[in-house]
UniProtKB/TrEMBL annotation:
SUPFAM superfamilies xrefs: S-adenosyl-L-methionine-dependent methyltransferases
Keyword Transferase appears in the UniProt entry: yes
EC code(s) of this entry: 2.1.1.222, 2.1.1.64
Enzyme class: transferase
Protein name as annotated: Class I SAM-dependent methyltransferase
A GO MF term: 3-demethylubiquinol 3-O-methyltransferase activity
This protein's UniProt keywords: Methyltransferase, Transferase
A biological-process GO annotation: methylation
Record-annotated Methyltransferase type domain positions: 42-143
Length: 270
């Protein structure tokens, strides 16, 4: 866990979603579409609180938690800066696999948009899913992010020197079989777990959730370089709006899920 905390203490996660806005735009479209009209929402693994601030602005009572103390402090500062503190029920440093501060069925909706990336052991992923189930009300909606094994395989094949140790076929075959990745280069992305896309729904089903939808947070936009995105942005506001709409529409296409860098599972607690 220290490795994860050290990485995110130095990484600008708020800025990442500003620099790469497609993931946030697509996710928020589907989150807002499926949220209850009001209520208490947990943003679990919230990082600096990008989604939490949006929820608070929409009038939800938000509880924020994250493993990294610095990010929790940044979120608290953001809430104060945006004059949203009254919409928050607390800012907590917690492991997603142990939400002991929260009572059973405390939340009308829950987000977990990051923790499963970093839980390489199946037992830890199971604990996080069980805790999400425990703190969400019966019938409550959950939003859970996954990183895809197919996309990481493609990244490694396209740019092997950037994703060591996946720069050799032996290591790449091992990654494909296990989904586990530990970057060789100091200070790069932490130890991570990448899901087989077909395993996501059974995993959530096993832990008490029924699927509403599974969408690609970056859709086919994950394949485009910044200059290619800029081409469509430079066509004018109307063309760029239609580009974003296309990314949102194609996010629901099951044939494209594996190429998206992140997936968003939307489900209900049975």
């Amino acid at each position: 866990m220290k490795e994860i905390i050290d990485y995110y203490s130095a990484f600008d996660e708020w800025g990442r979603l500003d620099r790469e806005p497609l993931e946030f735009i697509v996710n928020w479209h589907y989150i807002s579409k499926n949220l209850p009209p009001s209520g208490r929402v947990l943003d679990n693994g919230a990082g600096p609180g990008k989604y939490a601030m949006k929820l608070a602005k929409q009038g939800y009572q938000v509880t924020l938690s994250d493993l990294t103390p610095r990010l929790v402090s940044v979120a608290e500062e953001q809430a104060d800066h945006l004059q949203l503190t009254s919409q928050f029920d607390g800012f907590h440093v917690l492991n997603a696999a142990d939400l002991h501060l929260f009572s059973d069925e405390a939340f009308d909706a829950s987000l977990m948009l990051g923790p499963l990336y970093h839980l390489q052991e199946e037992a830890e992923r199971s604990k996080a899913a069980k805790e999400l189930y425990r703190v969400t009300k019966s019938g409550g909606v959950v939003f859970v992010a996954f990183q895809t094994r197919t996309r990481m395989l493609l990244n490694s094949l396209l740019n092997p020197a950037h994703w060591k140790p996946n720069h050799t076929m032996d290591n790449l075959e091992q990654f494909w079989a296990t989904g586990r990745f530990n970057h060789e280069d100091q200070g790069r992305f932490t130890g991570a777990y990448y899901f087989d896309t077909a395993a996501i729904e059974p995993f959530m089903e096993e832990h008490g959730f029924e699927k509403v939808s599974l969408i690609g947070s970056t859709s086919i936009g994950a394949l485009l370089h910044s200059e290619q995105v800029d081409y469509w942005r430079n066509q004018g506001d109307e063309a760029h709006r239609k580009y974003i709409e296309l990314m949102i529409t194609t996010a629901e296409d099951p044939a494209l899920l594996g190429i998206s860098s992140h997936l968003l599972y939307i489900g209900r607690r049975r």
